[in-house]
Amino acid sequence: MKVAIYPGSFDPITNGHMDIVDRASKVFDKVIVAVLINGGKNPMFDLDERVELVKKSLVNNKKVEVDSFTGLLTDYIKENDVDVIVKGLRAVSDFESEFQMATMNRKLNENAETFFLTTDMKYAHLSSSLVKEVFRLGGDIEEFVSKPVLDAMIDKGVGDE
Ligand code: ADP
Predict the structure, then answer these.
(1) Which residues contact 114 (CB under 8 A, 6 or more apart)?
(2) Nearest atom within ligand 1 for CA of residue 126
(3) Would you say the CB of residue 25 lies under 6 angstroms from ligand 1?
(4) Does any domain span residue 152?
(5) Which of 14, 25, 119, 138 shows the smallest number of beta carbons within 10 Å?
(6) In the chain, how many domains are there?
(7) Using one digit for the tens of pLDDT, what is the confidence trace for 78-90?
(8) From the CB of 132, is ligand 1 less than 6 Å away?
(9) 119 lines ligand 1 (CB under 6 A)
Protein backbone atom coordinates (compact mmCIF):
# COMPACT_ATOMS: atom_id res chain seq x y z
CA MET A 1 0.00 0.00 0.00
CA LYS A 2 1.54 3.28 -1.14
CA VAL A 3 0.52 6.35 0.78
CA ALA A 4 1.01 9.90 -0.49
CA ILE A 5 0.66 13.17 1.34
CA TYR A 6 -0.40 16.38 -0.35
CA PRO A 7 0.40 19.29 1.97
CA GLY A 8 -0.78 22.88 1.60
CA SER A 9 -2.60 25.73 3.22
CA PHE A 10 -5.75 25.21 1.14
CA ASP A 11 -7.18 28.63 1.97
CA PRO A 12 -9.42 27.57 0.31
CA ILE A 13 -9.04 24.40 -1.79
CA THR A 14 -9.40 25.19 -5.53
CA ASN A 15 -10.17 23.08 -8.58
CA GLY A 16 -6.41 23.07 -9.29
CA HIS A 17 -5.72 21.38 -5.93
CA MET A 18 -8.59 18.94 -6.50
CA ASP A 19 -7.18 17.96 -9.88
CA ILE A 20 -3.81 17.15 -8.30
CA VAL A 21 -5.51 15.02 -5.61
CA ASP A 22 -7.61 13.14 -8.15
CA ARG A 23 -4.63 12.41 -10.36
CA ALA A 24 -2.44 11.41 -7.40
CA SER A 25 -5.12 9.02 -6.21
CA LYS A 26 -4.88 7.16 -9.51
CA VAL A 27 -1.25 6.39 -8.73
CA PHE A 28 -1.30 5.89 -4.95
CA ASP A 29 -3.53 3.79 -2.71
CA LYS A 30 -4.22 6.59 -0.26
CA VAL A 31 -3.76 10.36 -0.47
CA ILE A 32 -3.63 12.30 2.78
CA VAL A 33 -4.52 15.91 2.14
CA ALA A 34 -2.68 17.63 4.97
CA VAL A 35 -3.85 21.11 5.82
CA LEU A 36 -1.17 23.33 7.33
CA ILE A 37 -2.27 24.62 10.71
CA ASN A 38 -0.51 27.90 10.05
CA GLY A 39 -2.36 29.00 6.92
CA GLY A 40 -0.40 32.18 6.26
CA LYS A 41 -0.69 35.66 7.68
CA ASN A 42 -4.24 36.57 6.97
CA PRO A 43 -6.23 33.46 6.18
CA MET A 44 -9.78 33.79 4.89
CA PHE A 45 -10.73 30.49 6.55
CA ASP A 46 -9.58 29.15 9.92
CA LEU A 47 -8.16 25.64 10.17
CA ASP A 48 -11.45 23.88 10.91
CA GLU A 49 -13.14 25.62 7.98
CA ARG A 50 -10.28 24.78 5.60
CA VAL A 51 -10.35 21.11 6.67
CA GLU A 52 -14.15 20.99 6.34
CA LEU A 53 -14.03 22.50 2.85
CA VAL A 54 -11.36 20.01 1.73
CA LYS A 55 -13.52 17.15 3.06
CA LYS A 56 -16.68 18.42 1.38
CA SER A 57 -14.92 19.10 -1.92
CA LEU A 58 -13.32 15.64 -2.08
CA VAL A 59 -16.17 13.63 -0.55
CA ASN A 60 -16.48 11.42 -3.65
CA ASN A 61 -12.87 10.30 -3.63
CA LYS A 62 -12.67 7.26 -1.37
CA LYS A 63 -8.86 7.22 -1.40
CA VAL A 64 -8.65 10.61 0.28
CA GLU A 65 -8.06 11.20 3.95
CA VAL A 66 -7.93 14.72 5.36
CA ASP A 67 -5.71 15.72 8.26
CA SER A 68 -4.02 18.84 9.58
CA PHE A 69 -0.47 19.28 10.74
CA THR A 70 2.06 21.69 12.14
CA GLY A 71 5.82 21.41 12.45
CA LEU A 72 8.03 19.45 10.11
CA LEU A 73 6.41 17.53 7.27
CA THR A 74 9.30 15.05 7.52
CA ASP A 75 8.29 14.23 11.10
CA TYR A 76 4.68 13.74 10.05
CA ILE A 77 5.60 11.34 7.28
CA LYS A 78 7.85 9.31 9.58
CA GLU A 79 5.16 9.02 12.24
CA ASN A 80 2.39 8.15 9.79
CA ASP A 81 4.27 5.80 7.43
CA VAL A 82 3.80 8.01 4.40
CA ASP A 83 5.72 6.97 1.29
CA VAL A 84 5.79 10.09 -0.85
CA ILE A 85 5.08 13.79 -0.82
CA VAL A 86 3.00 15.00 -3.76
CA LYS A 87 3.25 18.57 -5.03
CA GLY A 88 1.70 20.39 -7.94
CA LEU A 89 3.73 22.54 -10.31
CA ARG A 90 1.95 25.36 -12.09
CA ALA A 91 4.82 27.22 -13.67
CA VAL A 92 8.58 27.60 -13.62
CA SER A 93 8.07 30.05 -10.75
CA ASP A 94 6.80 27.20 -8.54
CA PHE A 95 9.85 25.12 -9.36
CA GLU A 96 12.55 26.96 -7.44
CA SER A 97 10.92 26.93 -4.03
CA GLU A 98 9.56 23.40 -4.51
CA PHE A 99 13.00 22.18 -5.55
CA GLN A 100 14.55 23.73 -2.41
CA MET A 101 11.84 22.27 -0.21
CA ALA A 102 12.16 18.78 -1.71
CA THR A 103 15.94 18.86 -1.26
CA MET A 104 15.66 20.08 2.34
CA ASN A 105 13.07 17.42 3.14
CA ARG A 106 15.36 14.71 1.83
CA LYS A 107 18.18 16.10 3.98
CA LEU A 108 15.94 15.92 7.02
CA ASN A 109 14.67 12.46 6.17
CA GLU A 110 16.47 10.54 3.43
CA ASN A 111 13.29 8.59 2.65
CA ALA A 112 11.24 11.72 2.00
CA GLU A 113 10.77 11.58 -1.76
CA THR A 114 8.72 14.27 -3.51
CA PHE A 115 6.69 13.50 -6.63
CA PHE A 116 5.62 16.41 -8.80
CA LEU A 117 2.53 16.53 -10.94
CA THR A 118 2.37 19.27 -13.52
CA THR A 119 -0.83 21.23 -13.51
CA ASP A 120 -3.53 20.60 -16.03
CA MET A 121 -3.19 23.71 -18.20
CA LYS A 122 -6.77 24.69 -17.48
CA TYR A 123 -5.72 25.28 -13.86
CA ALA A 124 -2.30 26.83 -14.52
CA HIS A 125 -3.53 30.31 -13.56
CA LEU A 126 -5.28 29.19 -10.36
CA SER A 127 -4.06 29.91 -6.85
CA SER A 128 -6.02 30.29 -3.64
CA SER A 129 -4.82 33.86 -3.23
CA LEU A 130 -5.84 34.89 -6.75
CA VAL A 131 -9.27 33.29 -6.34
CA LYS A 132 -9.76 35.25 -3.10
CA GLU A 133 -8.65 38.48 -4.74
CA VAL A 134 -10.99 38.05 -7.70
CA PHE A 135 -13.82 37.24 -5.28
CA ARG A 136 -13.11 40.30 -3.11
CA LEU A 137 -13.23 42.47 -6.20
CA GLY A 138 -16.61 41.05 -7.13
CA GLY A 139 -15.51 38.68 -9.92
CA ASP A 140 -17.15 35.36 -10.74
CA ILE A 141 -15.20 32.45 -9.24
CA GLU A 142 -17.71 29.69 -9.85
CA GLU A 143 -15.52 27.83 -12.33
CA PHE A 144 -12.47 27.88 -10.02
CA VAL A 145 -13.78 26.27 -6.82
CA SER A 146 -16.22 23.59 -5.68
CA LYS A 147 -19.79 24.42 -4.70
CA PRO A 148 -19.10 24.09 -0.93
CA VAL A 149 -16.16 26.53 -1.24
CA LEU A 150 -18.19 28.97 -3.32
CA ASP A 151 -21.02 28.90 -0.75
CA ALA A 152 -18.58 29.37 2.13
CA MET A 153 -16.96 32.35 0.40
CA ILE A 154 -20.34 33.91 -0.25
CA ASP A 155 -21.18 33.39 3.45
CA LYS A 156 -17.99 35.22 4.43
CA GLY A 157 -18.98 38.12 2.22
CA VAL A 158 -16.95 40.32 -0.11
CA GLY A 159 -14.13 42.20 1.57
CA ASP A 160 -14.28 40.08 4.70
CA GLU A 161 -10.81 38.92 5.75
P1 ADP B 1 -1.59 28.05 -3.17
O2 ADP B 1 -0.22 27.96 -3.78
O3 ADP B 1 -2.71 28.04 -4.15
O4 ADP B 1 -1.75 29.06 -2.08
P5 ADP B 1 -1.11 25.82 -1.40
O6 ADP B 1 -0.01 26.43 -0.64
O7 ADP B 1 -2.24 25.27 -0.62
O8 ADP B 1 -1.83 26.71 -2.45
O9 ADP B 1 -0.52 24.75 -2.42
C10 ADP B 1 -0.34 23.40 -2.15
C11 ADP B 1 0.23 22.71 -3.36
O12 ADP B 1 -0.70 22.76 -4.44
C13 ADP B 1 1.52 23.28 -3.93
O14 ADP B 1 2.33 22.20 -4.34
C15 ADP B 1 1.04 24.07 -5.14
O16 ADP B 1 2.07 24.18 -6.10
C17 ADP B 1 -0.09 23.20 -5.62
N18 ADP B 1 -1.07 23.91 -6.43
C19 ADP B 1 -1.81 24.98 -6.06
N20 ADP B 1 -2.63 25.37 -7.08
C21 ADP B 1 -2.39 24.52 -8.12
C22 ADP B 1 -2.88 24.42 -9.46
N23 ADP B 1 -3.79 25.29 -9.93
N24 ADP B 1 -2.42 23.42 -10.25
C25 ADP B 1 -1.48 22.57 -9.77
N26 ADP B 1 -0.95 22.63 -8.53
C27 ADP B 1 -1.39 23.59 -7.70
Answers:
(1) 84, 85, 86, 87, 98, 101, 102, 105, 106
(2) 23
(3) no
(4) no
(5) 138
(6) 1
(7) 999 999 999 999 9
(8) no
(9) yes
